[in-house]
């Protein structure tokens, strides 16, 4: 994402020996530590679970749109997977859902403004 300028460019630095985005990993590790220190871990787990399920819902929707040789599974399976992810996501605590939706909305807004 940093290479595409969706995040600050300095996060795109790749470690010369280990070939990993070391600055991004350190920043993310710091954010995770801060979240664990200042919040209830159960809330962080709920938030993370909701975000992952939204990601998988998008992946299933993308798989549903594939045609021909690009598609590995039948469309009904992608549809079932997407619905399953949404159902699971909606069973999480409301605070986790609302917090994640708010952060996603901020991210989408910033990206839209950045791309305009």
UniProtKB/TrEMBL annotation:
List, alphabetically, the InterPro entries matched: APC_superfamily (IPR050367)
The protein, known as: Amino acid permease-associated protein
Q: Where is this chain primarily localised?
A: membrane
**Source organism of this protein record:** Candidatus Protofrankia californiensis
Q: Which GO terms describe its cellular component?
A: membrane
The domain of life is Bacteria
Topological type in the membrane: Multi-pass membrane protein
Transmembrane segments annotated in the record for this chain: 26-59, 79-110
Listed A to Z, the keywords are:
Membrane, Transmembrane, Transmembrane helix
Q: Gene3D superfamilies from the xrefs? A: Amino acid/polyamine transporter I (1.20.1740.10)
Compartments, record wording: Membrane
């Amino acid at each position: 994402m940093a290479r595409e300028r969706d995040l600050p460019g300095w996060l795109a630095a790749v470690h010369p020996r280990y070939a990993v985005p070391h600055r991004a990993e350190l920043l993310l590790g710091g954010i995770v530590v801060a979240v664990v220190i200042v919040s209830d871990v159960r809330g962080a787990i709920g938030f993370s679970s909701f975000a992952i399920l939204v990601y998988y819902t998008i992946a299933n929707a993308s798989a549903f749109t594939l045609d021909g040789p690009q598609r590995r599974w039948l469309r009904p399976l992608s549809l079932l997977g997407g619905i399953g992810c949404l159902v699971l996501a909606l069973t999480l605590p409301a605070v986790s859902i609302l917090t994640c939706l708010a952060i996603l909305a901020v991210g989408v807004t910033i990206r839209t403004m950045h791309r305009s």
